[in-house]
Structure formats: structure tokens, C-alpha cells
Design a protein that fits this description.
By secondary structure, the protein is an alpha+beta fold. The protein contains 22 helices and 19 strands.
Length: 611
């Protein structure tokens, strides 16, 4: 099975930090002290439901303070903004998670991410009994994760037995009338919400739900309304990492929330969610490995909130195959038939816009999913306006992965992509640089792919040398006698590269059978420029269309390399009937009609593919 460059990168991160010995496991809740400090899982979920994960991504642990923004969102949904703001503010405290940060006048907690604010928020969970409120919380977390979750009873009991500071906070809130009734009941519910068992994968999906405007990308069920999702992310941005929040948003740039069991949840709105599990914590109560991983992710993939667009334009403009679109090389009929049958193994991906992680990741996924049917892949960057270093890394990792699968890959339209070339110059060897740089144009890459496919499937080799008159496409079906009669009227021509054999606007008085080399057909685009529209190789004719109408030449035919050809003057062609060779003239006309019909069908197929 193909391994995505994203998956490879996560494995690289996991390998990089798995042996870290920094940090200590939380012990102030005794049951958390039993955690294995070597467990380490990473997961990323995209807003369209793709999940990448490595390590202990399914290992269970308790959600702890990561529950706070989720429950805050529920409170906003059920109680409304005014009532929530009456209980808890939104100002950063700049202090630790268990600080007693209350407004000195009202007793209101400064924000819902510290324990005091979270207890106040939890008191707003609806239900007509403690059990009903517990079930409502479990329902919320399950909807965020996309599957049923439950409590870790051992951790819950351990928290309840040792949570004396939180108990004191709850009574202070009751004293200020932030809590009403018995403060032990919302406090106990708070202990339960912190004890819900999750995994790094669950956290990634929860984060992706927030990134997706409150809709779970796996189940497509709405968990929070968009306006409340935005409020949750705002509070996470300013308060989610406690007294590390400022440095976090400056360096990493993703709204995030950590938990003392070793979990870390991070969100890049509109793009991805990140979930990490690693129990050892730093002095501020954040997962050491989690912070390192998020920092690398942000820097390597350009995931900083204020450096990436909120609206991501899909990068994939079109996917075509070699059976639908062809190079500018005009082919013989049998070659066209072979490409029609086997050209689907050539896959062309046209990319566009600005390439960043979120826009490129679905493209990587699509290419790898379809790679089992491909022998050649062309990634065309001609319509790409800009790409960052993260995209360069992913593109080149994709090419390497396809190469390991035996798939030949071309990266075209990259000539003016300075960032890509700078990245390649730094990271790839000389062979890799040549592979990227040649060929640089889509039609050249397609021609190369077509030649490979034809070599695999054609019974006779594709003509690269001299093609005699008998094998010319316009001479199909001619008898030896007819070939002799025609040959008597042909003049050998040998020309160097760069010569205009036929010029646009000149009189139409002859045609050519190309026996060796290659010519290009050019159209004038303005006074000083012309565009190559097709290439012809040995065995093909040019100038022959004018046999029909004798109008002046509509295009210029120029030798691209030294050529040899056989020239037939139209005056000699016209005399064939007078010489009793009308059957030869008719066969030449019939072959011409067949060739032009084939070219028209190919042109129609390309036009259809452009739709």
C-alpha cells in the first residue's frame, strides 16, 4: 500500500522525539502517575475526514483540561452568550491552569480555560439530574470524536479524592454566586468530564471538528454552531496554553489546549486538527513532546494561523489520462489506437492557485489512491501561483514514493517556481535536480510518457530512424507498382535544423513525406511570436492538407532537428490521372482523408477533456 508523504513526515517526527527524556509525568492525581512515559502518539485529521496517525495514537488516556473548550462550546449552545459571560470572562490570566484567577469585584473567573472558569462553565451543562448531565457531557465528547466515549472510573475517583484545590475553588465560586446550589455537584461533574478516556486520534478528530466550523468531518454531524465554534477557538488562542499562551501563539500559531494526562489538541481553522499524546510534562503542565511536534509541524508545513489563508482553494484543477489528452506529437493511426487503449496508465494532474499543506494534501491522497492504475504521473504546476517550502517537501516526497512503486513521474511547469528550485538545490542530489528540471513542459512530458507506453505495447518499435516510403501513413495499402510510380515523382530533400520548410502565407504547391528527423508546426500568435502546436516524426506527411483546397499555407513547418524527406510537387500529383494512375491518386486521397479524420477525433477527445 502507498505511504503518503504526510504519513512519512509524521513517522519522521515520531522517530525524532520518541527517545526524548525531558519532562515528568503528572503525579498530583495519583492515578495519572501510573502513565507510561514512553507512550507517544501523533494524529492529524483534515477537514474532509482524512486521518493520519503514528505511534500510540490509539492508546487511551484521560482528556483532562482539553475538555474545557468543548464544554465551553456546549455552554454557549445551551445557555447563550449573555448567560455564559455572566459566569466566566474571556481575558487571559497569564497564570497556571489551577490558579485562582477571579475578578476582585464580581468573583467571576477570568476565562473558561483555567479550572475556576471550567467549573463555572460545567455548571451550565443541561440535565434534570446528575446522571442526565453526565450523559449529556459524554454525548458531547462522543459527537466530537465520532464514536462513543466513556469515563475512566479509576482516574475519576482519584481526581475526586485528591481535588482539594478545585474543591476550594468551587466553594469560592459559590460564595460569589457564580455557582448556585451545592457546589459539590458541578465540581463532581467537572471531575467526570476531565476523566473521559480518549486517544490522540480522538483529539485530532475533535480538533478537525473545530477546524471544520463545528461539523465532525467523519460523521458530517454538526456539533457546534459556526459562531460558537469561532468563540471557542478565540478563547483557545488567547488562553488555551495558560501562562505559555503568548509564546505558543507567536511560535506555533494554532489555537490549542493541553491536558495534564499528556494530551494536546491543536486547530488550524479551515484546514486540520492535531492530536498528540505523550505523558511527560514541562513545568507549565504541557506535554513536552506535544509542544515539540506542534512546533515542527507549524514551521515545516507553514501552519501558523496568521501566515495561511482561512479559505483554501482546491489545488486540483483537473485529472486527465493519456487516453484523453495527448502531447503535440502527431501519431500514426496504430499508435493512436494503442494510446486510446492503454493511455489511461498516464495520469495528468493539473494543479492551480497557492499550494499550502491544506490544499496540497488532498492532491497527494488522490495521486496515491490512483497510483495502482498508473505507470506514469505528470504533476503540472503551470497554473500554480505560489507554493511554500512545505509544499515543495511534500511534492518531492511524493515523487520519491511513486518512484519506489516503479512509477515514472514528471513535474512540469516548474520553471518559474523559485521556491521549488531553491528547495531542490538544498535538498536533492544532482540526479534529483535533473529529474525535476527535464522535461519542463507538459507536452514534452506527455510525449515521453507516450513513447514509454508505446514501447510496452506496440508489436513493432516506434520509428526513431529512417522510415521508407512504403511505411509512410499516406502510402498505406499501395502496391509495389504504385509505390514505384509514386517514387519516380518524388524529390529527396535534406535540411538542417531550424529551416522553415513551409511558411505561413506562402503558395501551396508541394507536400512532403518525412523519412527521418522531426518537424514542428507553428502558428503565428503576434507579430514577433509563434507557438508550436504539433510535432511530426518519421512516417508522417506535412503540407498535404493543401491538396484539398490549394489555399496559401496557414502555418509554418520548421525542422526541429536535421531532416530527410521526399517532396511531391502538386503539379506531379495532378498529372497522375493523365498518366493512367488515377487509382494511385484516389488511394492517396483516401489515406489523406483517413489521417485527417483520425486527427479530428483526437482533437475532439482533447476538447471534451477540457470541459
Amino acid at each position: 500500500m502507498s505511504t503518503s508523504p504526510v504519513q512519512q513526515y509524521l513517522q519522521h517526527l515520531h522517530d525524532k522525539y520518541a527517545r526524548m527524556e525531558d519532562g515528568v509525568v503528572a503525579t498530583y492525581i495519583p492515578e495519572l502517575g501510573r502513565a507510561n512515559p514512553h507512550q507517544f502518539g501523533i494524529a492529524i485529521a483534515t477537514v474532509d475526514g482524512q486521518v493520519y496517525e503514528v505511534g500510540d495514537s490509539h492508546a487511551p488516556f484521560t482528556i483532562q483540561s482539553i475538555s474545557k473548550p468543548l464544554v465551553y462550546g456546549l455552554a454557549l449552545e445551551v445557555a447563550g452568550l449573555r448567560q455564559v459571560l455572566a459566569r466566566v470572562g474571556v481575558e487571559p490570566s497569564g497564570e497556571a491552569f489551577n490558579s485562582i484567577s477571579l475578578d476582585p469585584r464580581t468573583g467571576r473567573p477570568l476565562n473558561p480555560m483555567i479550572n475556576a472558569g471550567a467549573i463555572a462553565t460545567t455548571s451550565l451543562v443541561p440535565g434534570d439530574s446528575p446522571l442526565a448531565r453526565r450523559q449529556r457531557l459524554l454525548q458531547l465528547f462522543s459527537e466530537f470524536a465520532g464514536h462513543d466515549l466513556d469515563l475512566d472510573e479509576a482516574v475519576y475517583l482519584s481526581e475526586r479524592e485528591t481535588g482539594h484545590r478545585n474543591r476550594a475553588i468551587a466553594h469560592l465560586l459559590r460564595n460569589s454566586s457564580i455557582l448556585t446550589g451545592d457546589p459539590e455537584e458541578p465540581l463532581d461533574l467537572y471531575f467526570q468530564q476531565c476523566s473521559v478516556a480518549v486517544s490522540a486520534r480522538d483529539l485530532a478528530v475533535m480538533a478537525a471538528t473545530l477546524a471544520n466550523g463545528g461539523v465532525n468531518p467523519l460523521t458530517q454531524r454538526r456539533v457546534l454552531q459556526p459562531h460558537n465554534t469561532g468563540r471557542v477557538l478565540s478563547v483557545m488562542t488567547s488562553c488555551g496554553m495558560y501562562d505559555y499562551a503568548g509564546e505558543w501563539i507567536y511560535n506555533v500559531g494554532m489555537p490549542a489546549k493541553s491536558g495534564v494526562a499528556g494530551g494536546l489538541l491543536a486547530v488550524l481553522p479551515g484546514q486540520i486538527g492535531v492530536g498528540i499524546f505523550s505523558p511527560p510534562l514541562d513545568p507549565k503542565g504541557n506535554s513536552v513532546r506535544g509542544i515539540r511536534v506542534c512546533t515542527d509541524l507549524s514551521h515545516d508545513f507553514g501552519l501558523h494561523l496568521f501566515n495561511t489563508p482561512r479559505v483554501v482553494t482546491p489545488a486540483l484543477k483537473a485529472v486527465q489520462t493519456g487516453a484523453e489528452v495527448r502531447s503535440k506529437r502527431l501519431r500514426h493511426r496504430h499508435e493512436i489506437d494503442l494510446l486510446r487503449r492503454h493511455g489511461q496508465t498516464i495520469r495528468i494532474y493539473q494543479l492551480r492557485g497557492r499550494l499550502i499543506f491544506a490544499s496540497l494534501e488532498p492532491v497527494l491522497r488522490s495521486v496515491l489512491q490512483q497510483s495502482t492504475q498508473a505507470t506514469h504521473v505528470v504533476l503540472d504546476l503551470a497554473r500554480v501561483a505560489d507554493l511554500d517550502r512545505a509544499s515543495c517537501r511534500l511534492l518531492l516526497d511524493l515523487i520519491a514514493q511513486l518512484g519506489r512503486q516503479g512509477i515514472r513521474t514528471h513535474l512540469t511547469g516548474a520553471g518559474d517556481k523559485t521556491t521549488l528550485h531553491d528547495y531542490v538545490a538544498e535538498r536533492l542530489d544532482a540526479e534529483g535536480w535533473r529529474r525535476l528540471s527535464e522535461p519542463s513542459e507538459l507536452t514534452e512530458a506527455l510525449e515521453s510518457c507516450e513513447n514509454d507506453v508505446l514501447k510496452r505495447h506496440v508489436s513493432a518499435p516506434v520509428h526513431l530512424g529512417e522510415v521508407p516510403l512504403a511505411e509512410q501513413e499516406l502510402c498505406r495499402g499501395l502496391t509495389p507498382g504504385e509505390l514505384y510510380d509514386l517514387g519516380c515523382r518524388l524529390t529527396p530533400v535534406e535540411l538542417p535544423a531550424g529551416i522553415a520548410v513551409l511558411s505561413a502565407g506562402s503558395p501551396a504547391d508541394d507536400m512532403y513525406f518525412l523519412t527521418h528527423g522531426e518537424v514542428g508546426i507553428f502558428l503565428q500568435t503576434n507579430e514577433s511570436n509563434e507557438q508550436l502546436i504539433s510535432r511530426l516524426g518519421p512516417g508522417m506527411g506535412f503540407g498535404e492538407v493543401a491538396l484539398v483546397d490549394r489555399e496559401p499555407r496557414s502555418a509554418t513547418v520548421r525542422s526541429l532537428v536535421p531532416i530527410r524527406a521526399l517532396r511531391l510537387a502538386f503539379s506531379d500529383f495532378d498529372q497522375l490521372a493523365d498518366a493512367g494512375l488515377g487509382h494511385l491518386q484516389a488511394k492517396l486521397f483516401a489515406n489523406l482523408a483517413s489521417v485527417l479524420a483520425g486527427r479530428l477525433r483526437s482533437a475532439n477527445a482533447e476538447i471534451r477533456s477540457l470541459r
